[in-house]
Amino acid sequence: MVIVQVIVGGLLLGAIYALFSSGLTLIWGMMNFINFAHGEFVMLGMYVALLVVTWIGGGPAVFGVAAAAALFALGVGLYSSLIRHVIRGPMLAQILSTFGLALLLRYTAFFIFSANFVSLPSTVLAGTIKVGGIFLPVAQLVAGAAALVLTIALHLLLTRTTVGSQLLAVAEDRAAAMLMGIRPDRMQALAWGLSAGAAGIAGALMATAYPWSPSVGETFGLIAFVVVALGGFGSVLGSLYAGLIVGLIQAVSAFWLGAIYKDIVVYGLFVALLWLRPQGLMGKA
Amino acid sequence: MSRLFTPRSAVVLLAAALLLYPLILPDAFYRDIGVTLLLAALSASAWNIVGGYAGQVSVGHSMFFGLGAYTPLLVYNLYGWPPLAGIPCGIVLSIALALAIGMPTFRLTGHYFSMATIAVAELIRIFTGTWTLVGAAIGLQGPATARGWWDLTFRSELPYYYIFLGTLAVVIAATAAIERRRFGFYLRAIKASERAARSLGVPVRRTKMQALALSAAFTSVAGSLYVMKTGFIDPDSGFGILVSVQMVIVAALGGAGTLFGPLVGALILVPLQTATNTWFGGGGSGLTYILYGGIIVLIARFEPGGLFELWHRLAPHFRKRVHAA
What we know:
The complex is a heterodimer.
Chain A (H helix, E strand, L loop, with lengths): L1 H30 L6 H18 L4 H27 L4 H23 L14 E4 L2 E4 H23 L1 H11 L1 H6 L4 H26 L6 H16 L4 H22 L3 H16 L9
Antiparallel strand pairs in A: 1-2
Chain B lengths: L6 H18 L3 H26 L8 H18 L3 H23 L4 H19 L11 E2 L16 H23 L1 H11 L1 H6 L4 H27 L1 E2 L1 H5 L1 H14 L6 H20 L3 H19 L3 H19 L1
Antiparallel strand pairs in B: 1-2
């Protein structure tokens, strides 16, 4: 029965991985650009949730929306002030821009919030429910379910709406999209907003169930790389499956091998993927 | 005036200043800055071969630095060999690791390489922290007192200073030789456009692999020299991400893909880092990395070529003004 508990816990966390990784894959798919600061966006979402709960109060709906909105604004702002300029520059500038941003955000968070682990007050989403012999904390259940719904919503937004078609059109052919009356810069700013917003709300959801410190961004950034490499670059649906798989693998390896080995297994998986199937499990060759 | 200040005379002046620096400022504080500066310049120059010249941006070069740092202490602790004997072992391991990473990722676009390097470095860092043979989270200790000169364990900073300076000279000389050869032209062609280079018959993958292997070997030596001086290594100071960050920022600030860019970057950043640490005390290290992050973003946004490119752009304006006066 314990293993069922472990598997369910892994899948619930995996749904959150899927949500923030779909933000990374969106940017990669649209502009062939890797955001090294994506994990820091998740970390910022967590602290936004903490600040909102401490100062204003309210439930997950309040701080979740606040984190999404704050990070959406950050994403759009970063696109217009930084990314738009480096994207046509040399590779070095592209990689350095978000890599430097990651350092800046991580150590600013250290400076403001200190290196200590924090968590939301336990009164937010308290309690445990028992389903078929396993115990599930309400917070984990709500966070996982919400992440699953939001990831599917992002997938539907990209595939079933006009805005989604416009985003994909810009990704496909910038010049042709412009001739069709789409403004590429506006669409790419929107993509950065959605990407950072997804990371922010994923962070806020995770904050309800798990403690964190400023250094978690590095881990989440690498996990997002693994999920995207597994799911295929540019595919939100691929991220969803891959996120669940990575969450599951992490939980099971932590259970069998010990908690310190869970990241070794996941990063090892990433290296193996780069060797064997660099286009990802669901990616196009 | 402009004839006196040629590139050649600038290099001679710089070399003379570096040679005389520890003799002019014999204070331990200044010697320590000098040693740190040379080490930063050395690792960044090694990174520069693949990250600057070939344009393959590694953000996990700490893996080679860490291998170079761990291996001498490991052979010392296991077999009692002098740490000096561990340097070639570290080089061999680093080249093997470089080939293992380059083989899959160099078939793909540059982003994969960057992602793979950061993931592999992190994998090795966490793994080292769990492996008791290499000291796990505590790390490894070198010889407490020297059994002979071959242990490279000196009380004074002075021998380290000149060993580091000599090694830096070797790396810069090797890079200068590469610049003039066909290999150097291949690297620049790949950096400018991989597709164009391939269509002109440049063996792209092989050239990138060679650049990475050479860079890994030099970075490993830098790691070995670092550990000779500190006599101690742990997962974070060997494989930590900040080790890689330092190499990238030092090279990029001076000018990635230029011969003296890494040295210039180190000449600016290391004193700056010492200053922030001195002003802000123990809490200063966090501020240093905020500063680093900010500098990296500014370089990427405004001057990806680093200070050297800025100088080349601004120098003609200065010259005009001198002529007008």
